[in-house]
Amino acid sequence: MIINAITGGTDEARRINRSLAALTRKYGLAMAVGSQTLAIHEPSLRPTFSVVREENPDGVILANVSALSPIDEALQAVEMVKADGLQLHFNVAQELAMPEGDRDFRGVLDNVARLVKESPVPVIAKEVGFGFSREAAEKLLTAGIQHFDIGGKGGTNFVAIEDQRQGLFAHEFDDWGIPTAVSLAELLTLEKHVHLTATGGIRTALDGVKALAMGAHLIGMAGPLLKLLINEGESALENYLQGFLYRLKAGVLLAGANSIEKLQQKPVIISGKTAHWLSARGIDINRWARRG
Ligand SMILES: Cc1cc2nc3c(=O)[nH]c(=O)nc-3n(C[C@H](O)[C@H](O)[C@H](O)COP(=O)(O)O)c2cc1C
């Protein structure tokens, strides 16, 4: 499980990152820091990110920059937290909803290809709540990407959040995006083997068990963990994580498995809207049902 990219850059962010990193160390979780671009331009902010590595010297920590970032910035981000992997966030919907957001995404694929080539650590293409389509993932495969963080629709919704501030989408795009289960299924049908992190709206341990059973290698959460930490404090978050991990393991056992590999051999029935969507996309949902 990964505590996904949230923050960095302020004193409060430093405290949040320290608390999150302490918990990842205690429970053997991975963690991604928030976008590091600010700290690359303002070195005094770097400790608000590097605190994560100090707190968890041997843990799995991921750096985070935009998919449009220049190579030198991406390399600095990796170095800043001695990262084990580099998340490249794709947040086009959010940028377009923001009055001050980016408008020019040309050259992103070439940039990703360069970053994959130059990065000393694996590079992960990460959405932030709108999901990747199979076609988008295929393009990223040509750029050398082998790791995806789905970041599908169903959880934190940055378009809706921006619109609550001064966003430009007038709440007309609140339902935009590919749900996490759909995006996960689409990427699982890619010809090439890819490593998939299921995120975006994972809210219960059972959501996590289902995502892992479908074929995700890792699950992650961001919004709810931050809310709990801010509203109720570190020990409340710790209690929640303990319970979540217990229920995650209980779910795997109840499915008759004692490892994620075995869970992924169990039949999974896809029904309702997800089945309808996948069928419309020509994806054979029985491939999951026939297992076991
Ligand atoms: C307060 C907050 C800040 C975030 N900042 C970043 C960020 O800097 N970079 C990034 O890639 N994703 C960022 N995310 C997105 C999360 O990493 C995650 O992809 C998204 O929230 C979906 O997961 P969730 O539904 O569990 O929250 C942020 C999320 C939240 C809630």
Structure description:
With 292 residues, the chain is α/β, with parallel strands linked by helices. It has one domain: TIM Barrel (Alpha-Beta Barrel), CATH 3.20.20.70. It is 48% helix and 11% strand. The chain is built from 15 helices and eight strands. An eight-stranded parallel β-barrel has the order 1-2-3-4-5-6-7-8, surrounded by six helices. Helix 4 (71-80) links the parallel strand 3 and strand 4. Helix 11 packs antiparallel against helix 12. The radius of gyration is 19 Å and the shape is globular. The model has no long low-confidence stretch (mean pLDDT 97). The structure holds flavin mononucleotide (FMN).
Please give the structural blueprint.
Layout: E1 2-3, H1 11-27, E2 30-32, H2 37-41, H3 47-55, E3 61-66, H4 71-80, E4 85-90, H5 92-97, H6 108-118, E5 123-127, H7 134-142, E6 147-149, H8 158-164, H9 180-188, E7 195-198, H10 205-214, E8 218-221, H11 223-232, H12 234-254, H13 260-263, H14 272-280, H15 286-289
Parallel strand pairs: 1-2, 1-8, 2-3, 3-4, 4-5, 5-6, 6-7, 7-8
Helix pairs in contact: 1-3, 1-12, 10-12, 11-12
Bound molecules: flavin mononucleotide.
